[in-house]
Description:
With 171 residues, the chain is an all-alpha fold. Helix content is 81%, strand content 0%. The chain has helices spanning 5-32, 47-73, 81-109, 116-170. Helix 1 packs antiparallel against helix 4 (116-170), helix 2 (47-73) runs antiparallel to helix 3 (81-109) and helix 3 crosses helix 4. The longest helix is centred in the last third of the chain and has 55 residues, at 116-170. It is globular, with a radius of gyration of 20 Å.
Amino acid sequence: MPRTRTQRIAFSILMAFVMVYGIELYNQALLAGGLRTELFVAPLADIVPLMAAVIALESLVGGRVAAHLVGRLLDADRCPQVLVTILRGAFTCWTMCPMMSLVATLAFKQPPAGELVATWLQTVALNFPMALLWQLFVAGPAVRAVVRAMGVAESLLRRSIKSGRATTCQS
């Protein structure tokens, strides 16, 4: 998990990008009747506003609810970290998928007022299984690996800067 503020910001941006891209690609494939090569660029058209919605909703609601639920179910100091990480991702999907499905329903599907709830529930039902699997098996591990590598690079850079200063001060 991210340890510094820079890592937390990078984690949020990368996770938002990977989740939005994956779920938008999935929805485009559903609309097209299957995945085709030309669909891989389709999610990029709406990615920035959807990423902004994800980051805002995750910061204000989804992440807080997920952290609270994990804290109530597990003692993070005594449980394996992998279990904490898996549950945090699962609970984040559990809160974020309905909220982002509502955003997508309003922004893209624009159903008549009488059909809003039904359209939203159908969107959640179609997206949640994919969002959960995408989070647990693709986005989560990939983004954590990138952020972990950034942390290693950051600490190596800090060490080299400190050693460079020490060498300069001794001259």
